[in-house]
Structure formats: C-alpha cells, structure tokens
Amino acid sequence: MTRRTTSSESQRPARRGARASQVGLESRTRAWLRHHRAMWLDSAQRLAKRPLSSLLTMLAIAIALVLPSGLWLALDSARLLDAELDESATVTVYLDTRLDERAAMDVAARLRDQTPVAGARLVTAAEGLAEFQQGVGLEDALASLEDNPLPAAVVVTPADTDPDSVRVLASNLEAVDGVDEARVDLAWLERLRRLAELGQRLALALAGLFGLGVLLVVGNTIRLAVESRRQEIEVVTLIGATHAFVRRPFLYSGAWYGLGGGVLAIVLLVLGGHWLSAPVTALAESYGAHFTLPRLGFGGSVLLCFCSTLLGWLGAWLAVGRHLADIKPR
Predict the structure, then answer these.
(1) Interhelix angle for 187-228 vs 230-238, to 10°?
(2) Distance CA 108, CA 153 (A)
(3) I need a surface site. Which of 103, 117, 127, 197 has the fewest CB within 10 A?
C-alpha cells in the first residue's frame, strides 16, 4: 500500500543533516583566555588546600636557589673590590738621579702623554724622602744625610689594567729619556683575575646543578599530581581534550611552585645578609676599610623570581609531557 503525499507535505522544505557552525577567532581567543584564568586560579587553590606540602616543596626550591644566588652576590662584591684594586694599579717610574726638579716635571709631562696612560703624578726627591721618613720613623737618622739618595718618581695610572697591557706600558715608559726604571707588581693583579675567573665558572656550575635540582623537585611533585588525577585526565581525553588542554593546569602549578620558591629564596637571602652584615662590617673596620655586603635589590629580586618561575614551569612541562604519553583512555 503506497502512502499518498499530501499537498502540505510536498510543500515542506526537505530536512538537511547537522550543520557545522564555525567559531570566530575572537570567540576562541576569549575562551582560551577564560580557560587560562580558570586554570591559574584552580592551580593556586589546589596548592592552598595542601599548605604544608606546598610550602615544603617551595622551601626545597628556595634552598636550591640560595647557594648560587649567594655566590653570585659574593662575586658581585668581588667585582666591586676588583674595581677598587684596578684604580690602585699603578706603575712607579723612577727618574734619573741627575735630573733637577724642572727636568723631572718635563719628563712627567712626556709620560702623561703616553698611551694608554690615565694619569701621572710627580713625586719629587724631597717629597719621596719626607714620605719615607714618615713611613719608617727614622726622621733624625735620615735628616743627618747630606744628599738625598732617593730619585724623583712618577706614579703612572694605566688606562688598561690588564696585566699584559701594563707590562707593555712599563716597557714603553722605560724607553722615555730621563727614565731610569719602571717598576710594577703584577702578581697580585694576576691572582685576583684568576680567582675571579674561577669564581665565575664555579657559579655557573652551581647554577646549572641546582637548576637541575629545581627541575627534579618540581617534576616529581607534578608527576604525583598527574597520577592522582589520572582518571580525570582519561575522561577529558576521551571526550576530545587535547594534550595542551590537559597540560595547562599542571604548568600553572609548576609556575606557582617556582614563584613561591623564588620568593622564599629572597627572604632567606635577606635574612642571611642581615645576620652576616654585623661581623663582616666589624672585620672590615678592623682592617681600616669600609665594606658592606651587596644585596639583590629590586632588579635582582625580579630576575630571581623570573628564573625560578621559568624553572618551575619547565619542570612541570617535562613531567607532564612524559606522563601524558603513558595515559590512554580506556
């Protein structure tokens, strides 16, 4: 029996299948930002629900960051000391004893024009004898001398304190007419440069090792978090969630761990600086010097927090990327 088609049914438009709706770029961007904001808050709330374990993880990260940061501050103070010693690096040029004071001034002017010379100060024979008398405390014995045995000298400050450059400069100064000898002690300067180079390499090595330690701490913590949420990950993966979607909350958790560890490291460095400032100042004053421990400052604190946050994010990314490959929906 055939079914008759009425006129009303024949006038109805034919039904079509499901139509795909295209989502605009602006809508997708807003959804992406909303999800990032939601994951950022959700990861912070999850850490706040476990304050003790979160604090211990951040404290482990802070301890790993304190030692290279403290060594960096020590190298910074060594660079300040190096700059002060560079200013004191001089070449003592002894003039011919037969030169009178006017001729000595002419030689000092010629030495001042040499390259690379930052400055030259003439010490006459009389001034040299007076300084020697004051230094050794033999005023009466030296005053009985008929002639001054000390020559005039010119204290030359080199513009370049590199040991090789200072040696070349000393050789050039000895070739000037009226100069008897140019003397410079470069042993302490070379030792200081070698120690500074050793400290820089040691700081880089420690920074790399403790940075790897931060990655391991954050990676192990995130691995446990991934395992605790395995069923949730399997469900969202089953309904079509991408790895980037699943990875996002764990990346924010790692960043929070890193940021908290950086802040705790700054607190530990500040407390340690206050604890050591008094004995360091007393030791410097006992040598007649003024020295204060360097501090991180605002720029150093921001840099430390940025590096710690980046390490936390990277550790979480490595851990999640490895374990997501093993989780498959069933």
Answers:
(1) 70
(2) 9
(3) 197
Question: Considering all CA atoms of the chain, what is the largest pairwise distance in Å, rounded to the nearest integer?
Answer: 150
Rg of the chain, C-alpha, whole Å:
37
Question: Do you know the residue count of the chain?
Answer: 330
Picking from 178, 205, 203, 317, the residue whose alpha carbon sits closest to that of residue 257 is 317
Distance of alpha carbon 155 from alpha carbon 326, whole angstroms: 73
Residue pLDDT, tens place only, 285-295: 775 556 677 77
Tell me which fold the domain 90-185 belongs to. Answer: Alpha-Beta Plaits (3.30.70)
Residue ranges of the chain that CATH labels 3.30.70.3040: 90-185
**Residue 116: is the preceding peptide bond cis (ω within 30°)?**
yes
Q: How far apart are CA 246 and CA 238, in angstroms?
A: 12
Number of H helices, E strands in the chain: 11, 4
- 3-state DSSP assignment of residue 8: helix
* C-alpha to C-alpha distance for 259 and 314, rounded to whole angstroms: 12
Give the pair of three-digit tokens for residue 27. 């809508």
Residue whose token pair is 């560079």: 86
Is the pLDDT reported for residue 8 higher than 70? no
Q: Tell me, what's the pLDDT at 261?
A: 92
pLDDT recorded at residue 22? 57
Q: Would the pLDDT of 161 be above 80?
A: no
pTM: 0.62
pLDDT band at 44 (very low <50, low <70, confident <90, very high): confident
